[in-house]
Design brief:
Layout lengths: L3 H17 L8 H25 L5 H24 L2
Length: 84
């Protein structure tokens, strides 16, 4: 999925807006799972991009980024379909 970066950022932004509004306790376990996976994907992508910038990204690093992206999307798609 080409827009995983934007979708992950939307999830992180939604979490932040809810926490700032005092709605932390109303966030569902399902949403928190998607949020956790979005954060993990962003962390892996940031790491891979850092190595990529120095032409030093290993196959393992690229696999970790791709796996984190897939894991996030696999959690995100059913969640977003359920809440549209």
């Amino acid at each position: 999925m080409n827009n995983a970066d934007a979708l992950a950022q939307e999830v992180v932004n939604a979490w932040g807006q809810n926490v700032q509004a005092g709605n932390r306790d109303s966030l569902t376990p399902e949403f928190l799972d998607v949020f956790d996976k979005a954060c993990r994907y962003q962390e892996r992508k940031w790491s891979a991009d850092s190595y990529r910038a120095h032409n030093a990204l290993s196959d393992e690093g690229a696999r970790a980024e791709n796996e984190a992206r897939r894991t996030f999307i696999q959690a995100y798609l059913p969640w977003v379909e359920k809440h549209r």
